[in-house]
Amino acid sequence: RESMADLLKMARVVSTKMKKRRAASNKLVEYPRKRSVAAMSKYEIADLIHKTFPTEGYDKKFIRHEVTGEDFVAMEKEDFRAMGISKFNHLRRLLDLQLLRDPMRPPPAHDTESLGASARPLRVPFWRICRVRMKDPEIGSGEKKVRYVLRWDPPTPEGEDGVECKAKLLGGTSAPIVKYDVHHSIVHDGKRTYSVVQEHRKQKQSLGELENLIEEMRSNGVIILDKKQAYMYMDMEILQIDIVNERFSVSCSLSVFWRDPTIIDDHRAIPLLDKDDILPDAEIPIVLTRRGREDMPISLERLFANPVGSSVNVYYRNENLQPKTGVVRGSYKIRVTIKQSMSLSRFPFDRQMLQVFVFAGTEDWHIASEPPVEWLLPDQFCTSSVTCVPSSRVESEYKCFPPIARLDANRGGIRFTARVQRYQTYYIVTAIFPMFILTLIGAAGFLYTQLLEGRIVLVVRLMLTIVAFRLWLSGILPVISYITVMDIYLLTSYVMLTFVALESVLVTWRITSAEVALYVDIVSAVIYVVFWGCINLGYVTAAYTGFLFQSWDVVEELNLKSFERHVLVGNTMDLYEEDGGGKGEEDEDFGEGSEESKLEDDGRVQ
Known about the structure:
Layout: H1 2-25, H2 42-52, H3 58-64, H4 69-74, H5 77-82, H6 88-101, E1 122-123, E2 127-135, E3 144-152, E4 179-181, E5 186-188, E6 193-195, H7 207-219, E7 223-225, E8 228-242, E9 247-259, E10 269-271, E11 284-288, H8 290-294, E12 313-322, E13 327-339, E14 351-359, E15 365-367, H9 379-382, E16 386-390, H10 392-395, E17 398-408, E18 413-422, H11 425-441, H12 452-476, H13 485-510, H14 514-545, H15 552-563, E19 588-592
Parallel strand pairs: 1-6, 4-7, 8-15, 8-16
Antiparallel strand pairs: 2-3, 4-5, 5-6, 8-9, 9-13, 10-11, 11-12, 12-13, 14-18, 17-18, 17-19
Helix pairs in contact: 2-3, 11-12, 11-13, 12-13, 13-14
């Protein structure tokens, strides 16, 4: 009986030690946190929301409702919906943010049925997808095959970019990826499921590089569950270009297509016709419910970036469902005035790229550059993604080039860009040619009279006339801190007339002989005319060959730099702090309006 008691006691001790060792091996690595969410003020919460959703403007909603850290941790989905945050993916990310920051609550449970995994996904920090070559036991003979694995870095105690997270000690590398759910940001390697949200992606791996790897994974047999697909088409008319206030007005017709055959059955849309009145192969007019509007690729409440005040006017709206293909088409006609910095360094030989940035749900939707063939869209929507026509007022001043459309995934939208080039005839006739004649008349100062006073009076009168031209130009141009081509021409005229005044002073004071003075005046007049003629010949040659025009790539780069200084939030103009955003390397070309784009480098004077 005593020996049996000793054995049971020894067994309990061994069992306790085994449990401790097993718990130590499976223990999560926990690092000290700076502050929990519950201890944050309303301004710190707004800053946290801005870092998580830099392009949505949710931080202003939190400031307006004075949400503190304690309020944020206790908020549920209904509370976020009441604040105007209705997208499912955004709600899930906000709930994850609560759980990620609060150590007292368990990690969230994600829907992993699409990946066939029952375990909760493991959130990994600072992740990236890598291409590796490893042996395949099915092939044998030591031959290696291309595989794709998920790698992540261990979090630092301070965190990176304000992100505090946990990760199991799994070596930082997963097994070969079997499935990748892009829509729900979940990766499965056959053993474990990982949550790979874009906020924790390694900044060294750009979004464009990740999309290329996803296409390679698809071609190599990895199951890719894509986002929902949508397509956008815009037909815009440029109503006005205000150079002084640096803004332009457009009237655009936006068509949005997405496939949702169960939109009526799920009560996300209400048909306006009875079943008996529906003709075969005809579109059904529908009205979207609140859930239907939340599932759209766009939001009409926050549609454009950098509009001027409340200038967005949606004066026509219509949705239709094609029952044969299940494609929903939303047609919207909108007028808007957009703020944009103009590049005027080559004025009047300047080119402008007028960007209409449309916010799209790129986190939940894949915006296609071309509509799928099975959608059976009309030909007018398949030739190009954007068309542009100028109004009669704009057409008289600018030449329009074929527009372009680019997907900007980093900023969450599409840039529809109209390209215009100014006609120079008006400025040549009204400003450049009169200044050429006035400066040429300055040569008469050498032979006008031998009196110094008469020559100085002539030069001063010519300079005052050129100053009047400069004042006229200042009324049609904004206040800018750089010099334009027109300013250089004016300064050249000032220098030429100043040369006439200096020559007159030197001849009057230094040369006493009348014959020598006349000879010097004649030589100076000839040099003046020849030099001024060479300068204007150089200007004409540069304008004719297109040297005075900036290339479209340079104009686009300048516009993007000015565009990045503002937050891409509708009806607001705030400073934007760039967090590793590129200069457009990940932009996807949507194509140009027509084959006439070959003429875009034709920079001759119109």
